[in-house]
């Protein structure tokens, strides 16, 4: 069955009907015309800057003009790279129902699912269990599905939770099948369905009792003896000896369900469920999530070696049991499958508040931009909700790289049983922390090392090797995940992304130098747009302080309202914001969400982009180290109340809040000063642009003023942050006149 090993079904031949269609977006022509006009406007602006620079009559004026020029160069660069997404966006549809009529179930390729978790106290095991159950309950032949849990937390609590999950699955899977349930994550199902019959009531009670047990164990921090029922379970926990810590421990691999023999209560086979905690040692690097995924790639190769792999974050449960069949609509297509590396579903989230105050939906990053890349050679890899062909991890489509042992080869057929001694032994060996030493894992094979955004980097490198990808965005979201619900948490997550992206910029794979050459100009620019994301901080920070400090000192730095150059600024501003608004609404957004999205863009520019860049440079100097701080998925009651009501949570002191608050203060002061002068009768024609910018920032900063002055709850601005920011803002104000005068 060579076809099956290549991630395709054996019945698909050249004459197979296709089960998907694609159409180009109607706005393409308009996008292109607008891009041409806007480019001319940008050139005019740069010319205007050049004039100003050459005509500046003092050093201070020169430096102000220079800073605005630099800002606009960065804005222009980001604008140009963004056009790559606007040149050929496409929309796809799939027809899984038709596929099921044509392709035999027995011809479906096998599927290995990888779920990563890293810390039971930040990622509640019960929610990881929900994710696993939701995919185990896929409408897909159970004997072809294996679910691997990677536990980087090395926690017996997580293992215990999955032992319980395995038992509960034997009730849950037939329950879903029999009642044709669509929400196959128990939490999601019980949140939206009240039990109306005794069967549902019973299964709900069973779920609740499992949840209580798991939460109990979590609270106690260890598995009490009375919770361990069988001999096999007891043996599994003996691995947690006294010397066992999360940074230092042997590999633990436990087969909890085996799809060749374990049956549910109705007699159907169940998918395999395998717990894997790779070996860790303080002396060898473990490469965070990429390392975890590579360990799973190897362990799964040894045990099941399915040609199709789904990667999921622990909080991303399946929201549609038909998803793998939808994926087959592409994988069975002989026209595309030879170079198809992966199929990405957008990251979508449950529990966003109505107006998505922290813009965690990331509509551009997760939907608008991937649609644009899909018209080129495919979306980036988003880290979760992505189906890979296993073969893609072993070199380009026409240049296969063989792994060091034949059992890891994507074409290798596993002949032995997953619980047999030789298989388990080999699985432990390939999960060892020294296995990768002097191999090509992480560089040529598997998920790629070298960036904290291993997802972005891996997808990008696969493209460079010649793989293509598809963006699959069905109406009913295929997966739903959690979002962070406090501002600092959001900023910390984004700071990690910033560091990861800058790592890509300064690597030899820089998308401008390496990317445009290997994957084409537009794809290279698209990847550049992502990886240069942190550079937004340069123009945003300059625009947040320089015009306002100049206004406070009565210095005009933009064209007067009556000058023609003023209209250029109006056009550039309205053009960029207007197009952003239209695209946002067009992809199903609301005006309020758009407003919050642009506000978060400014906030990120002043905080995480800035501090992430700083962290990266400190790391280069060897002053600090960076690591993957897992996003907290545990919800505090007051926090979630604030979040639901759309109230910002500043809560924890962080330097990132200081720069933000400083900008809010300076802008307010500048606006007040400007307005006062206007009321006193001074003509403000030459100050209008500065006053407008200050006013715009002030309106955007409303939640900050409120949190500083009016609130007394836990989510208010920490007093320390307020005091330090006021002090620093004053210092900036006092120092600035010197630079202006000199
Ligand atoms: O050492 C680690 C660190 C993290 N993880 C797992 O990685 C996933 C993502 O971590 P999370 O803290 O949720 O990060 P996010 O910023 O929310 O994740 C986004 O960004 C990451 C890259 O920074 C990608 O890996 C994710 O897929 C993408 O959803 C989680 O399942 C973690 O358990 C590990 O397995 N090992
Ligand atoms: Mn996450």
Number of helices: 26
Number of domains: 2
Mean pLDDT across all amino acids? 95
How helix-rich are the residues, as a percent range?
Answer: 40-55%
- What is the CATH class name of the largest domain? Alpha Beta
Backbone shape: globular
Largest sheet: 8 strands, mixed
End-to-end Cα distance, whole Å, is 78 Å
The low-confidence runs, each spanning 5 or more residues with pLDDT under 50, are 1-5, 8-14
Numbering strands along the chain, what is their spatial order in the largest sheet? 5-6-4-3-7-10-9-13
How large is the radius of gyration? 28 Å
CATH topology of the largest domain: Spore Coat Polysaccharide Biosynthesis Protein SpsA, Chain A
CATH architecture classification name of the largest domain: Alpha-Beta Complex
What does this structure look like?
The chain is α/β, with parallel strands linked by helices and 742 residues long. The chain has two domains: 96-485, Alpha-Beta Complex (Spore Coat Polysaccharide Biosynthesis Protein SpsA, Chain A), CATH 3.90.550.10; 534-626 and 648-741, no CATH class. It has 26 helices and 14 strands. The protein has helices at residues 2-5, 28-55, 59-87, 96-102, 125-136, 156-179, 186-192, 198-220, 231-237, 288-303, 323-331, 363-374, 421-430, 454-464, 487-505, 511-519, 521-531, 537-552, 564-586, 591-606, 608-620, 637-644, 655-679, 688-700, 702-710, 719-741, and strands spanning 20-24, 90-94, 111-117, 145-151, 252-257, 272-277, 308-313, 317-318, 340-344, 386-389, 395-396, 399-400, 468-471, 479-480. The strands form four sheets. An eight-stranded mixed beta sheet has the order 5-6-4-3-7-10-9-13, sandwiched between helices. A two-stranded antiparallel ribbon has the order 1-2. α15 (487-505) packs across α21 and α18 runs parallel beside α23 (655-679). The protein is globular, with a radius of gyration of 28 Å. Residues 1-5 and 8-14 have low confidence and may be disordered. The site of manganese (II) ion has 4 residues, from loops. It is found in: Golgi apparatus membrane.
């Amino acid at each position: 069955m060579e076809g099956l090993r290549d991630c395709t079904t054996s019945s698909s031949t050249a004459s197979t009907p296709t089960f998907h269609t694609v159409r180009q977006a109607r706005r393409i022509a308009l996008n292109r015309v607008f891009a041409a006009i806007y480019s001319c406007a940008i050139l005019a602006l740069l010319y205007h800057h050049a004039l100003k620079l050459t005509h500046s009559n003092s050093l201070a004026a020169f430096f102000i003009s220079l800073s605005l020029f630099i800002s606009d160069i960065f804005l222009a660069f980001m604008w140009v790279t963004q056009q790559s997404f606007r040149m050929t966006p496409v929309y796809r549809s799939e027809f899984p129902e038709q596929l099921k009529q044509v392709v035999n179930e027995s011809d479906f390729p096998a599927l290995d699912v990888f779920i990563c978790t890293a810390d039971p106290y930040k990622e509640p095991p019960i929610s990881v269990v929900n994710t696993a159950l939701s995919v185990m309950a896929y409408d897909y032949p159970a004997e072809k599905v294996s679910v691997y849990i990677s536990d980087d937390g090395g926690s017996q609590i997580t293992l215990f939770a999955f032992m319980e999950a395995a038992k509960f699955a034997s009730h849950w899977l037939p329950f879903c099948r029999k009642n044709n349930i669509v929400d196959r994550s128990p939490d999601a199902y019980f949140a939206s369905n009240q039990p109306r019959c005794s069967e549902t009531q019973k299964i709900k009670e069973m779920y609740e009792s499992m949840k209580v047990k798991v939460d109990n164990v979590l609270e106690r921090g260890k598995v009490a003896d009375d919770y361990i029922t069988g001999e096999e379970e007891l043996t599994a926990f003996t691995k947690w000896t006294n010397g066992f810590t999360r940074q230092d421990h042997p590999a633990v691999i436990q087969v909890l369900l085996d799809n060749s023999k374990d049956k549910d209560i109705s007699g159907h086979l169940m998918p395999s469920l395998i717990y894997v905690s790779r070996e860790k040692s303080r002396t060898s690097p473990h490469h965070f999530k990429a390392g975890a995924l590579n360990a799973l790639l190897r362990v799964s190769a040894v045990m099941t070696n399915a040609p199709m792999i789904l990667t999921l974050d622990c909080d991303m449960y399946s929201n549609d049991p038909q998803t793998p069949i939808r994926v087959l609509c592409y994988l069975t297509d002989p026209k595309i499958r030879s170079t198809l590396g992966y199929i990405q579903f957008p990251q979508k989230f449950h529990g966003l508040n109505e107006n998505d105050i922290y813009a965690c939906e990331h509509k551009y990053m997760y939907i608008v931009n991937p649609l644009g890349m899909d018209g080129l050679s495919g979306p980036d890899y988003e880290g979760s909700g992505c189906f890979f062909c296993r073969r893609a991890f072993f070199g380009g489509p026409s240049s296969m790289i063989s792994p060091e042992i034949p059992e890891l080869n994507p074409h290798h057929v596993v002949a032995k049983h997953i619980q047999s001694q030789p298989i388990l032994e080999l699985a432990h060996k390939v999960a060892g922390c020294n296995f990768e030493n002097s191999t090509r894992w992480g560089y040529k094979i598997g998920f790629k090392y070298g960036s904290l955004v291993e997802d972005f980097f891996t997808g990008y490198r696969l493209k460079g090797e010649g793989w293509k990808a598809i963006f699959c965005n069905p109406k009913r979201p295929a997966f739903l995940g959690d979002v962070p619900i406090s501002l600092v948490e959001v900023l910390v997550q984004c700071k990690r992304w910033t560091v990861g992206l800058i790592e890509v910029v300064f690597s030899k794979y820089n998308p401008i130098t390496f990317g445009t050459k290997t994957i084409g100009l537009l794809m290279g620019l698209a990847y550049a747009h992502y990886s240069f994301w942190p550079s937004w901080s340069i123009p945003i920070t300059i625009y947040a302080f320089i015009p306002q400090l100049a206004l406070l000192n009565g210095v005009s730095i933009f064209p007067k309202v009556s000058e023609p150059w003023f209209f250029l600024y109006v056009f550039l501003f309205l053009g960029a914001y207007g197009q952003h608004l239209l695209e946002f609404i067009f992809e199903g957004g609301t005006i309020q969400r758009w407003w919050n999205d642009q506000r978060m863009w400014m906030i990120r520019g002043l905080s995480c982009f800035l501090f992430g860049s700083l962290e990266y440079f400190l790391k280069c100097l060897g002053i600090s180290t960076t690591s993957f701080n897992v996003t907290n998925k545990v919800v505090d009651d007051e926090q979630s109340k604030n979040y639901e009501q759309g109230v910002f949570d500043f809560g924890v002191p962080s330097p990132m809040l200081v720069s933000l608050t400083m900008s809010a203060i300076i802008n307010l002061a500048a606006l007040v000063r400007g307005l006062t002068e206007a009321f006193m009768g001074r003509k403000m024609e030459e100050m209008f642009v500065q006053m407008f910018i200050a006013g715009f920032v002030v309106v955007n900063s409303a939640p900050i003023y409120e949190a500083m002055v009016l609130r007394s709850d836990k989510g208010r601005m920490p007093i320390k942050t307020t005091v330090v920011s006021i002090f620093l803002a004053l210092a900036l104000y006092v120092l600035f006149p010197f630079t202006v005068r000199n």
